[in-house]
Amino acid sequence: MPQQLFSPAKLGPFTLSNHIAMAPMTRSRALGNVPNELMAEYYRQRAAAGLIITEGTAPSPNGLGYARIPGLFNQAQVEGWKPITQAAHEQGSHIFVQLMHAGRIFHHLNLPAGAEGVAPSAIAAAGDMWTDQEQMQPNATPRELGSDELAQVRDEFVHSARLALEAGFDGVELHGANGYLLEQFLSPHSNQRRDSYGGSVQNRARFVLEVAQAVADAIGPERTGIRLSPWGVASDMPHYPEIDETYAYLAEELQKIGLLYLHLVDHASMGAPAVPAATVHTIREKFTNALILSGGYSTVEQIEEALASGRADLVAIGRPFISNPDLIERLKNGTPLAPLDPATLYAPGPNGFADGYTDYPTANAQAATPAPASVA
To answer: Is there a catalytic annotation at residue 180?
Structure first.
């Protein structure tokens, strides 16, 4: 029988109802980049997770790289998030917002008027992305951020973190993974700067650490986490020789800042190279606060082994939560998991944005609580 999985978990100042986190997953339902009633229902349905980490949420207009992702940089967005945090708390969950600046992963058609794609260097990422106006389009070329602009971008994260507390979030997770802005600074493939933010491992890590420190100073390190993806290849991020050195250095410096947790993602279950066990071990040694592991976990046995071994303090589950709003109960009861519909991951179905979002039934065949079919 599981010894830890379904028992309460201590995460800094928070006591979670169990050791499972709902991983952040972009779902593209925020029309106008403002959270809405349909999103509140989606998170409410899944709030049996001890911790919910929201989908990637832009801290500034320039960070809105994808179609229909939410932001958290103005008052309308704060008001849109409030029913979501309230719904999570009413169901007994804790909820962190993931602050994701897309950086060079963008297209101009997905940005509001006056916004632009910015990155460490003016290097376009390979690949295409969806635009509602012209469907699939190549990633655009970003403008390189000037050295004098970096403090402003850092302060955008800080401003968004403060708004997160106003909106009722328990904390924030900085998205330093999956090839977005913070990871773009870490990699010599996307960061070819010649100033103090480029070149050496320490220089390339500088901006990530400055953002982490500034956010921790603003809202408290006990409310600040970060997600990292060493050895990941998402969003055109090839491997480089100093990967392990980079993440060992980051783990050590993030521990000095005192962040609440480090969320380590492994995309091997989706076809990417696995994060070597030695890399995880080194990070675990150097970062001694909470470690969340994510990637391919879907059974009680997998999760319990990760917890019992001491490799993880919490385990984050992603895609199974999409099609199983009652995932925690299914795991407890040994109920088979329902498959998801790939066609509605980021797009509406025939009946609107609720399709493949809030209409997945529970294991007892009860439909989810009715919600609006449209978020317009």
So the answer is: yes
